Amino acid sequence: MQTDEQTSYLNENQINLACFDVGGQLFALDVSQVREIVRHQEITPLPMAPPMIEGVIDLRGAVIPVIDLTRLLSGSATEVTTKARIVVLDCDGMVVGLCVEAATDVLSLDANALEDVPELAAQAGYDSVRHVVRRPDESPVMVLSLERILEEVYRSALTIGEGK
Predict the structure, then answer these.
(1) pTM of this prediction?
(2) Cα distance between residue 164 and residue 146, in whole Å
(3) Residue range(s) defining the domain that contains residue 75
(4) Which of 8, 20, 139, 150 suits 27 as a labelling partner, its CA being 20 to 30 A distant?
């Protein structure tokens, strides 16, 4: 029989990842950052916003900015189908939505399963992916850094503001 201390230790070594499809590839974020996942809905464009910001949605009285994650990661817009979702996230008190092609799964795994991004990618300045999770007989899951994604959106807004 496990004691509360042993159970707590086991829970500390577990991580839950919310997985979603973006451009045919599987990405994930720590579920602790996910507030909810909602069906794709009409997004109101923001004039002069960076291309990655689709606009805003009204979600139960709160206006939430929505970032097109497919555009951010691959340059093309998210294909909106009946499977498309908006992943509503909370990053240090800032609420933002990520438009994804589909929400797929929640992976519960040992924290030791998180591997570092290959050194070449890290040295080349690619920091949107924080970790990689290898899976037997399946493609790896790329665990995103929400903080880096938001920094990329900020940088793109600065570039537009400077008229570049």
Answers:
(1) 0.81
(2) 25
(3) 16-161
(4) 8
* Two tokens, residue 111: 């924290």
Q: What is the pLDDT of residues 65-101, one digit of tens each?
A: 999 988 888 777 778 889 999 999 988 888 999 999 9
The whole-angstrom separation of Cα 158 and Cα 39 is 30
Mean pLDDT across 19-48: 92
Beta bridge partners of 63: 58
Coil/strand/helix, residue 48: coil
How many domains would you assign to the chain? 1
Q: Could you give the CA distance from residue 114 to residue 143 in angstroms, rounded to a whole number?
A: 8
Q: Is residue 3 part of a domain?
A: no
CATH number at residue 145: 2.40.50.180
Count of other CB atoms within 10 angstroms of residue 6: 10
Residues, the chain: 164
